[in-house]
Write a structure and sequence with these properties.
Layout: H1 6-30, H2 35-58, H3 75-79, H4 91-98, H5 108-119, H6 123-148, H7 159-164
Helix pairs in contact: 1-2, 1-5, 1-6, 5-6
Length: 177
Amino acid sequence: MREYSSAQELVNNIPYMAMTVLGTAIFVVGFRSSAWGLIAAAAYLAYGAAGAFWIMIFVCPHCRYWNSRLCPCGYGRIAARFREKSPVECFNEKFKKHIPVIVPLWFIPILAGLPVVIRSFSWGLLALLVIFALDAFVVLPLISTKHGCKECPQKDLCPWMKLRGKSAGLPVWRPQT
């Protein structure tokens, strides 16, 4: 089993952090730093941070690698500060139940930014949207699947990896039978 250093955990979390920061920037730039844009940006940033903690609180306690250096993202060690260990047998169920809470993070900035860039074109906003989409839908899944998840000792049981199939790291839906 591979143990992860704090630096390795940080590298595994950079795409998610970048997605959250880029999504926040889309609100600031798209709404020209208006009060509503700043409120939306702050709300999105808070949602990104809360989403990570949500996973730590409701999924990580069920992971075999809770409170150990065997967790590629380091969430398990943080989760141990908030929750006691829970039955590992419930991991898949909890994962499937709680991951949908953070899925909107991938779509909200695009749904908010596209109408703005269509109505009043801006190269800056368009660039942010493209970079956000590349990070959220290409880089983050590739890094997760090909690095963090690939090295995760629990990958064979994880619903995320089952959804991924044998793709090149891009989202692929494969119905469970």
